[in-house]
């Protein structure tokens, strides 16, 4: 009689612990990074950014976006995509605006993980004059992190994305060379 009761107790505690760890995995994360100056942003040497991730996109959200795209078309898809907020990226000090992130994935790698962040194409620098190609309507941010959460990244200012059958979002292509992020680290 003691064995089944002990087994039930251990299973219940295991479920509580697993749910607790699941909560920790979806807890907000904040990183800081520096963007190296580029020709498309005259006068910028290095700008420090905060990248805040409130949560990650789950497969059901991607399937729902795919259904909206299939049933109602591109405009409805973009409205639903923009309605989702998974975090933001914004410059620290100086000029610039906050850019909301609409999808986020954290993918394990051999050395740590890769975080992919997706938003509608836009600029955080209101004074920047960019040549844009209307075929590339998204911006993708890629962070390559080690097990301590440190690494580098890239910002693809003009990209295309695709919704996969596995419930993820991927960058399909991009138009211009990415901007380089360095010194990516967890923000305290």
Task: List its traits.
188 residues, alpha+beta, ten-stranded antiparallel β-sheet, 10 strands, globular
Report on this structure.
The radius of gyration is 19 Å and the shape is globular. A hairpin with a 7-residue loop joins strand 3 (87-91) and strand 4 (99-101). Helix 2 runs antiparallel to helix 3. Strands 1, 2, 3, 4, 5, 6, 7, 8, 9 and 10 form a 10-stranded antiparallel β-sheet that branches. It has 188 residues and is of the alpha+beta class. The chain contains 3 helices and 10 strands; from the N terminus they run H-E-E-H-H-E-E-E-E-E-E-E-E.
What would you say about this model in short?
The protein has 188 residues and is α+β, with helices and mostly antiparallel strands. It has helices at residues 2-25, 59-72, 74-83; strands spanning 29-36, 46-53, 87-91, 99-101, 103-108, 112-120, 138-146, 151-163, 169-174, 179-186.
């Amino acid at each position: 009689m003691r064995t089944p009761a002990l087994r039930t107790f251990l299973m219940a505690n295991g479920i509580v612990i697993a749910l607790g760890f699941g909560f920790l995995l979806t807890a907000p994360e904040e990183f800081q990074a520096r963007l190296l100056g580029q020709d498309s942003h005259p006068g910028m040497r290095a700008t420090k950014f905060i990248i805040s991730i409130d949560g990650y996109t789950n497969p059901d959200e991607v399937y729902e976006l795919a259904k909206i795209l299939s049933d109602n078309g591109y405009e409805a898809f973009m409205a639903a995509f923009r309605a989702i907020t998974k975090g933001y990226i914004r410059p620290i000090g100086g000029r610039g605006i906050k850019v909301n992130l609409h999808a986020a994935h954290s993918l394990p790698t051999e050395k740590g993980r890769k975080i992919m962040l997706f938003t509608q194409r836009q600029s955080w620098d209101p004074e920047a004059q960019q040549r844009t190609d209307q075929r590339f309507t998204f911006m993708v941010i890629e962070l390559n992190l080690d097990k301590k959460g440190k690494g580098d990244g890239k910002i693809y200012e003009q990209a295309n994305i695709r919704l996969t059958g596995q419930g993820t979002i991927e960058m399909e292509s991009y138009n211009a060379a990415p901007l380089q992020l360095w010194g990516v680290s967890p923000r305290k």
